Amino acid sequence: MNDRILGIAALLLAAFMTWAGWGIEAPFAYEPVGPRAFPLLLALIIGLCGLRLAYKGGNPVEPNPAGANGRIALMVAFAAGYAFLFQWLGFVIATALMTVFVGRLFGGGWAKCALGGVVMSVFFFVLFDKVLDVVLPGGLLENLV
Description:
Domain DUF1468: 5-137
Protein name: DUF1468 domain-containing protein
Radius of gyration: 19 Å
InterPro entries: DUF1468
Keywords: Membrane, Transmembrane, Transmembrane helix
Number of helices: 5
Organism: Achromobacter insuavis
Shape: flat
């Protein structure tokens, strides 16, 4: 039954994403497909996966191991915090913090998570902002980047 519930929830999410994404329009054409394509494509993929789960679901599922539900809730909280702090902190700091906290959830040590978070956030900032010309928020480091 869990698979079917997840499938129905995915279908509802896909419907909401389609409704919310349908009205997205850029004030000027800067890409051939426009900004509406990404949320609609993502909604299609989520909807197809949800449809499969709702149709084929019902397989017996093992319960989550001890402590997994708490880690899942923390992951959702971290993702929400990342979304809310992304603009203010900027891409580099927000991504580094998110990487450290998620790495710790999966059992990584503080030093490895911190090093990985800093290297990854700087690498992706340079890749997207400087190489691919995708504007990312500088946040607190605006004057340095």
